[in-house]
Known about the structure:
By secondary structure, the protein is mostly helical. The chain has helices spanning about 10-20, 20-25, 35-60, 60-65, 75-90, 100-105, 110-150, 155-170, 175-185, 190-194. It is elongated, with a radius of gyration of 52 Å.
Amino acid sequence: MNTKNNISNFEDDDLNEIASHLSKLDKTTPFKADNDYFDYFASKLENRISNLEEIKSEAPILSNIPLYIPFEVPSNYFDEFPSRIQDIVNNKPLKTSIFEWLILLIKPNFAIPVLTTLLIAGAGVNYIEKQSKVSSTKIEYQLSDEEQLYLIDESTIIDVIVSSTNSENEIKPEQNTGIENYLIENNIDESILN
Length: 194
């Protein structure tokens, strides 16, 4: 048996297999009191007490605050606690009446979150419905334009296009005189123009 740490050789081999890094660590305790610790303990305690006296002289109001624990457990509290809990559980009514539900609905800590949730849900549904109506009217307008084009005869479309190009190409009488004057001034022969 290994006297250094009271672990048998068999257990030491198991430790090497399971955690080889741990088995390689130094097996001495890193925590130990100095040899002089208890010799100087009394003087350290006296220094702390003298520091406390200095605090009392510097802050008398702080030092006059009574030192007591304000929280006390009543006598037999833990002895009576399970029975008190059991009484509360046993005496609790199983069913709640409609009147109690209505009171619960009226209370602000329940009513405000429920109403807020319903308001947000209603606003979301309203917004989505408006968006769907807008997109459906856009589609209707697009379809109605296409339907209108299907109803018009091709010959009518061609006539409108031809007449609009002819009206743009027609020369007005005022423009004719301007052209004639240009031709006369520049001595251009009429045979060249044809």
